[in-house]
Amino acid sequence: MKKALVALALASLLLCGCDSFRRLAGKPTSADIAAKKQLIEAEETAHQARLDSLRRVQKEEADSLTLVDEIKSSNVMVLRSSAVKGLRATGLDRHYYIIVGTFGSPDNAKLQASKAEEKGYTAALIPYYNGFTAVGINGTDRLRDAWETLHKVSQEPFCPKDAWLLINE
Fold it and tell me: What is the CATH number that goes with domain 78-167?
């Protein structure tokens, strides 16, 4: 009798598997365990993505602070649009511009802008209330891009030595 019960138990294990006994005992089946494992893996992947994103933001912040220190230690003039008397910064769609000249004659400003455009830069004419016009090039929303453009454009023959960075606010 004992041998028959053991044989019956072994036969039912072979035919039905462990899931039958798990179900009878109120325990999770292999399908439940596999689904939970997938859920845990998905949560771990999402968590890792958040950690990676946080690390990227922290690195960008550290790089930005380094860049700000580099700009402060340079001899480049950096002005906010609100600090420039008479500047009409309305209509500018970017946060940073490299100013490669301010002209009393609009024709001279257009000439400087065309020289910049011939070298592959985008130019914007920025009017002052007093009739002067500044030429801003390569408007961008990233300080790093503006700083790199300033270094690049300073090597161009059309660029004056006193080119400066405008922060449009």
Answer: 3.30.70.1070
